[in-house]
Amino acid sequence: MGVDKSDPKRPDNVVPYRRPPPAEDTVDPLALSGMVLGMIGVVVKVRAFCFIALAFIMSAFIRRNQDTDVKQLVVSGVVGGKGLAGRTAAAAGADAAAAAGSL
């Protein structure tokens, strides 16, 4: 089977397609900053950090692509929401027990 002279392709110049290698754990800066601000808001109990964290997380969720780890965004959102929720049930129960003990 010889090369057809009417075929304009040059078989020696044909390069087969190679899929590009996947990116190594690219970190979304919005999701990372949202997680950090949410944790700071929970630790220091300042709700402003949690509001800002939720804004970052929502922006990261809107800009997501196929490589985005949605679980990380959900966990970050839960942390930010927890900071906005205020005191935990355990802290409220401890305050109630302390108030009952002082009676």
Automatic annotation (TrEMBL):
Membrane in keyword set: yes
Transmembrane segment boundaries: 35-62
Subcellular location: Membrane
Gene Ontology CC, one term: endoplasmic reticulum membrane
MF terms in GO: protein folding chaperone
Top-level taxon: Eukaryota
A Pfam family per the record: ASTER
Keywords: Membrane, Transmembrane, Transmembrane helix
Keyword Transcription (UniProt): no
Recorded family membership: Belongs to the Asterix family.
The protein's name in its UniProt record: Uncharacterized protein
Biological source species: Gonium pectorale
Lineage: Eukaryota, Viridiplantae, Chlorophyta, core chlorophytes, Chlorophyceae
